[in-house]
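User: Hi! I'm working on a homework problem where we have to compare a predicted structure to a textbook description. Could you give me the structure for the chain below?
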Amino acid sequence: MLGFILGTMTGGAMGVFAMCLLISGKREDEALERCRMKPKEIINHGACICFVDCKGQELFRLSDGESLVQNAPNGERNVSTCHYLDADSAMIDGKKWNLLEFAKEMEKRGIMIAPMELCQVPERG
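Assistant: Happy to help. Predicted structure tokens:
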């Protein structure tokens, strides 16, 4: 009887854990799909986000609404949506950042940043 109760509790806990993994994976897949489906437009009116290093040197540019990939030293990877605010700041994952301060904070944490388009794995086919 005790084995049945322990088995049922363990099975329920494993089911909840598996469901959490499935839900978070689906959310990430949807975010990546939204990035792939967004048409790439050439920004000619100057409203693009210019990402810099901690010394202020330009690294790359993103259009409003494009995604940024942040790779942490421990292997964690985060995809953030970026929105243009002005020449010196952007909304990154819903938080307003001065781009130079963002670069300094990422360097301090050891996080590497890159545009989403450079980080996509080519599809096999």
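For your comparison, note the following. The longest strand covers residues 77-86. The two ends are 52 Å apart (CA to CA). Good luck with the assignment!
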